[in-house]
Design a protein that fits this description.
By secondary structure, this protein is α+β, with helices and mostly antiparallel strands. Helix content is 39%, strand content 11%.
Length: 285
């Protein structure tokens, strides 16, 4: 073909490049689905202590997937941050009031934009939690701010005893007396006092975080108690309970059914065996 014919011929169409679809993500486990349903029932907020067993049952892929879906795993609370906006909080309060309808009683949510308010007498803690807030002492605080305050408390409590500092007061928007009551609901206790530099002010309280201790399992405890005995004593205990003894404590293999006066009979060698022939050759030599 001439140059003109080559120029007039359109180039061959390139095949369409089809990108391989990403592999389908692994399905959520039963514990993750149960947790999601519980969050749905709680209108987006749950105390972490109430779902501790479900959290322990999550697989390695469950938490990242739930986090990508918008669920936040706090130390104090499991919640959906997108439902902590003013419009969503008002809707949550309305839904809670409609479900828990009481004659002539309607609990109002906190004013839009307020992260901490004084607790209102007669309002149950369940209402505040359904709105995305939590009562600490005499104050009601939004759950994301509760996580921030609890984080500061955990940091200062790592060294043992601690005192209320300005960072806690600033985050909580509370006085020292109010903050002391809030710390009680954050698993802390008063362990002492010290005088303030100003004699007219009340003494400064010293706090300590209560460590949650897990009880040891019964099986491990029984093994530790049994470990203090000698092997013969443990075997004797097992025999008295009808249990077989440990290795080496019973009769040898093949001797269980032998009578006490059993003696092994001597056997004459087989004359046709190769060993008998070999023995005869040695005698002749």
């Amino acid at each position: 073909p001439t140059k003109d014919e080559i120029a007039a011929t359109p180039p061959e169409e390139q095949p369409e490049i089809v990108e391989a679809a990403d592999a389908a993500p692994a399905p959520l486990s039963g514990a993750a689905k149960g947790l999601a349903f519980t969050v749905f029932e709680g209108l987006g907020t749950l105390p972490a202590a109430d779902v501790a067993q479900q959290l322990r049952g999550l697989s390695e892929t469950d938490k990242p997937r739930l986090a990508r879906l918008g669920l936040r795993f706090g130390v104090e609370t499991v919640y959906l941050p997108d439902l902590l906006k003013p419009a969503q909080i008002e809707l949550r309060a309305l839904l809670w009031n409609l479900y828990h309808a009481e004659d002539g009683v309607f609990h109002a949510p906190p004013v839009a934009g307020r992260v901490t308010i004084d607790a209102v007498e007669g309002v149950p803690d369940e209402f505040w939690l359904a709105c995305g807030y939590r009562r600490l002492g005499g104050r009601v605080m939004r759950v994301d701010m509760v996580e921030r305050v609890a984080f500061v408390v955990r940091n200062v409590a790592r060294e043992g005893q601690f005192r209320i500092n300005e960072e806690m007061l600033s985050l909580a928007g509370a006085t020292r007396e109010q903050m002391a009551a809030m710390l009680m609901d954050l698993n802390c206790k008063v362990v002492g006092e010290e005088p303030d530099e100003d004699p007219e002010k009340p003494p400064i309280q010293i706090f300590e975080r209560i460590r949650r201790q897990r009880p040891a399992g019964g099986q491990q405890r029984s093994r530790r108690e049994e470990g203090g005995k000698s092997r013969s004593a443990r075997n004797a205990d097992r025999k008295s309970q009808g249990k077989p003894g440990r290795k080496g404590g019973g009769p040898k293999r093949g001797q269980q059914d032998r009578p006490q006066n059993f003696t092994a009979k001597s056997r004459e060698p087989d004359p046709d065996s190769p060993f008998a022939v070999l023995a005869g050759l040695k005698l002749k030599s």
